[in-house]
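Handout, page 2. Input:
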Amino acid sequence: MEKRVLFRSAWLPWLLIAPQMAVILVFFFWPASQAIWQSMQTEDAFGTSTVFVGLENFKTLFDDPAYIESFQVTALFSVLVAGIGISISLLLAIFADRILRGSLFYKTFLIIPYAVAPAIAGVLWVFMFSPSIGVVSYGLRKMGMDWNHLLNSNQALSLIVVAAIWKQISYNFLFFLAGLQSIPKALIEAAAIDGAGPLRRFLTIQFPLLSPTTFFLLVINVVYAFFDTFAIVHATTEGGPGRDTAILVYKVWHDGFRALDLGGSAAQSVVLMVIVVVLTVIQFRYVEKKVQY
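Output:
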């Protein structure tokens, strides 16, 4: 029988959700509405004169080849960060779940990167891959690879992908580990008694039962790649060389605060918001059908 909570007062449920609704209104709907309104205006750098131009900012935006290139870079970046990050995190969670001795040390060690601020994470990887003093770049040169992300676009993209994945691995790892530990051990033991090897047990039992966790992390990692990687890009490559690693969220900041194109920057933020909302809806509409709850 379904259990329902009955409130004696009609206004009590609304009172309980009022704080959350206030947060959403103040920190999402109000800034979003301001961005939409500003995207239809042109404004000087000092904000002294404003002209309503309708959709002209959006037309100028999509006529700009640099913005289309930023689209392509962001798409590749988000696929790599989400795909590789989730895969590595799942692998680490499987290994950590199997460890019997010293498991607390390994789990704590894998969680540490999540406590590092994104900008600090970017600086750490810049030092390691610095063409002149970097330890990793020195090792790569010894192996015959000339590393210089300041000049090579592919290497710069690889650097921000690695830094972004490293920063997010701990978050993914925690959820995967919790998901693995919630699977009844009796199912795994029964499959082992039936002769199923570790790989077959994972593919037929563990991974299907982890599908809700995997779906949740897929949504979170896509949002992370689009929004939360600004500090990493800014600290590592600053969108360079040229604008080859200027993902959409970085371009919004660059055009708004450096180029002082406030209307164009607002239009970019609106487009970015729409893209993330559409991707999230698509994931819930089509990918969630394959999730086994």
